[in-house]
Amino acid sequence: MNRLIVLVDFSPYTPTQLKLACRWQEIYGLELVFLHKMDGLAPTLSNTRESDKIIAFNKAEAERKYLQYLKDSELSPISNQTTFEAIPLQLTHYLEGFLKPNDLLLLGLKGTGFLKRILIGSTATTIINQLNQTVIALPQSIDFAIPRKLVLSCQEKYPLNESALEIILNTVGKKIEEIELLTIIEDKGELEPSKTYLEYIESKIGEAYSYKISIYENTDAFSEIKKRFSQCLDDFIVLQKGSRHLNDKLFRRFFINDLIHDGNTPLIILPAEK
Questions:
Q1: Fold match flag (3-139 vs 149-270)
Q2: CATH code for 149-270?
Q3: Which of 21, 32, 135, 230 could be a cystine partner for 82, CB 3.0 to 4.6 Å?
Q4: Whole-number mean pLDDT of the chain?
């Protein structure tokens, strides 16, 4: 059974996040792990014997809030398949040791303005950039997100992580009605190799789905793609995290970060192959 790791911060978005996670557990048979990053200790207390007591108190308070959210939202996740943990450690450091290869990490996208993006970025981009894990990033405006269509963003030069894609399809595939294979080319010379690669991906996935192939030309495709999919919240864009190739890494990192900060598009980010 795959685990869905859900980061909760007890913000106004938390009830929506809990409902969505419980719905995914019901539909896809996932084990749920809710993680809450506690506020750090005051520096003057960080090395005293009192710190353990403070951490224990904060953990108990966090669990009390979590249970209250479940009660207020009338949610009953499967008890032997659901856990809650409040952690005092730096989040990405903790996740590096906690996550298993097949885990799915669920994040909420708040959307940030351009200035905020430049100054502090976002938790979502930090986690995606620092961890090599499959991430599902959903706009916080969505209260019921069951993917009906996957849009695979494919580049012939930089192949998809097929094993990570297989995990996604094995998890959410039974509700998928269509898979769109999408690519961006810079010139006509890339058309045939790109079509060949998209057809290869279609053949690897198999005949369980209907398919559509979309090929965009030129760099203006970014705005077209964002505009199109911000209106289709049942469509999830699947993006491949940057590979070892520098140009690919910069390209994908920019594209992923841009969509995350925009905060309007459901995303699945596949980890780079090791």
A1: yes
A2: 3.40.50.620
A3: 32
A4: 82
